[in-house]
Amino acid sequence: MQGLQIQYLHIMDFQLPYCFFFLLLLLLPFSGNGQAHSNISSGLFLTAASDNLPWTSPSGEFAFGFQQVGDAGYLLAIWFNKIPERTIVWSANRNDLVQGGSRVQLTRDGELVLNDQSGRTIWSPVFGGSGAAYAAMLDTGNFVLASQADANLWQSFDEPTDTLLPSQNLNSGAQLIAPYLEKNYSEGRYKFILQADGNLILYTTHYPLTTSNFAYWSTQSSIGSGYQVIFNQSGFMYLVARNGTVLNPVFSNSVSMQDLYLRATLDYDGVLRQYVYPKTASSSRSRAMAWTTLSNSIPSNICLRITGQQGGGACGFNSYCRLADDQRPSCKCLPGYTFFDPNDERKGCKKDFISQDCDHPSQEIDSFEIKEMPNTNWPFNDYEMFGSVDEDWCRQACLSDCYCAVAIFNTAGQCWMKRVPLSNGVTDPSVGGKALIKVRKGNSTAGSSAKKCDRSNLITTGSVLLGSSIFLIVLSLLGIYVFFSRWNRQQQKMIPQHRLMPDMNMQNFTYNELERATGGFTEELGRGAFGTVYKGVLANEDKPLIAVKKLDQMAGEGDREFNTEVKVIGRTNHKNLVQLIGFCNEGQHRLLVYEYMSNGSLANFLFGDSRPNWYRRMQIAFDIARGLLYLHEECSSQIIHCDIKPQNILLDKSFNARISDFGIAKLLKTDQTKTTTAIRGTKGYVAPEWFKNLPVTTKVDTYSLGILLLELVCCRKNFDIDKKEGQIVLADWAWDCLKEGKLDLLVEDDEEAAEDMKTVERFVIVAIWCLQEDPSLRPEMKKVVLMLEGAVQVSIPPHPSSFISTI
């Protein structure tokens, strides 16, 4: 009997799972509308309503259905379904929103049809063959229509809107079109297309048409020609050539898909960006629960790239573009102009004053004034150019010419006259020169209008003015009193003369001003080799926070030398450098005023109690390398930092790395390549040539970066006496691990890094190349950046023999 019971139980154990599976098969075709489906059977439909459930992928990470767009209507879309933002990655009717009650249905004939509330067909995909047997929302974010034999008849991946997802490829002729605005998903002003000739291009469009206008980025010169764009699961995006060769990547970020959602989107501002979003919150990670932009946005500065003769540029007519603190393009109107639509800045700007009378321009010169904007230009709007003139001549020429809206004057003595509408406006330190903008003074009216008034108008106007004379006199007296009261108060707060350094947009502070701003230099932010840094706040309207570096006595540095050095610092402008905003050179007091970095130094971030996430450390490495590339090769005067270390890398509010303290480094003229000087820098980061009285080149910064890269990979200091023998000197240990094929030991306690060993290996190899004892073996910073990005192949380095000597 007992044996029979055991046998019966075994039979039941075997049969129960199959019974359960069979029951599921019976129930599946009859599951209710709007539930999560692996397969969506013919006849099922969704209705546009606020409470209607979408069709979801098996994991629930993606959904297909209706999303309400404000009060404008509903968008049939695919979105990330497990995050609060419900970020849309594809849509069917972006240019034709539907209203409540509209319906999408997989018909009995196997067609997917979107009808509005009146029954009008809004959208239906076109595909060959017989109708679809079923539809499915996949975990990749792809929505497919499939045959009875499970062959895909149509898929959303083949008809992208503005976004690509990992495993989604862009085939020849396919394109992304940017949305019009961030929350307006209709087709906008930019597109990203893989052309039939194999060239991958970013274009402006002839909006409201989507035809191509100006190509502001292309792979033809930098990457090559291909027939398909691959976007793989690791975050790499690259072209495949027609002969099957894999070309250099468009994006080379390495991302863990296990922990992060990833997308590549052509944003409404015309920039192609990659974004990540953490799948789960974790106390061990410092990621905020929001979409974060990865490095290498394309292009890096769209303000400088759009220069076509047609179209308004990155920001519309009569405006100018500049990169904001978050490295996104910001649009502004030039003085005397306002936005046509404050909710859509890229529509451009309009004049707020009456234009100059072209019949009598000389009579109106006194009614206009010139306002300056340094480093600003509107290319291709000039109708006249004068050479060998000075700035005053250029100003007067524009004031006396009724066609002239802006004159551009440069250091070569050239004066370019420009008329409205002005296009492709840009403000950037690389532009140079200055814009002289003509605007009407105060409430001055156009002379022509006064001359054209008939006698009756003049009599009427005079009567009104005469009848109101007493009121106006009282009002004028009151105005004079208010004016002088405010003027008195302003005088008490008056900023001293010479506020701006010549040719530089920097403030010249007095020592007393900075003493007040810092509260008597009380809140110390840090100490360095050349002085102490204090936190302060400026007394102007915005009350911005500042960091004031109070320099110690600097022997041999006279006023002229100091001012020259400050000029060089002030000309530097890069997203990975801390920006100098002012200075003080008053008697024995020499101070530098920088923008305040709210997240402190990399040293505190990297060596604190909790380990920063792997992705953030990689981005910081890219940021530092790009900042050094700018100092070494791209700014007007080559700068060797000489003291790259975690304490001199600061983090802004978005945790972007900014190099600080480069302003006191040894400066080189552009035709110099090396210098010899006393040992500078910090123990543990100093290149061996300092100790050998060898010429010091930019390669000393390369060496220091090598140490920093290893610290970022391993999240520990270069020298740690508390580590076990063989691991005390990080650089020695890293070489041993590389040589023995045991790089996993470097990150064995770091789960995120351990899952990305290819990047770990690449970073360590690049670091070892940077640490070569012979400076000639160390790569230039441009090659370092390319190697870190994975854009060039990195070979195994030789043994570096200088680690111990630098400790």
From TrEMBL:
Residues 519-802 form the Protein kinase domain. Residues 31-158 form the Bulb-type lectin domain. CDD domains: B_lectin, PAN_AP_plant, STKc_IRAK. It is found in: Membrane. Its main location: membrane. PROSITE patterns: BULB_LECTIN, PROTEIN_KINASE_ATP, PROTEIN_KINASE_DOM, PROTEIN_KINASE_ST. It holds the Pfam family Pkinase. This is Receptor-like serine/threonine-protein kinase. It comes from Populus trichocarpa.
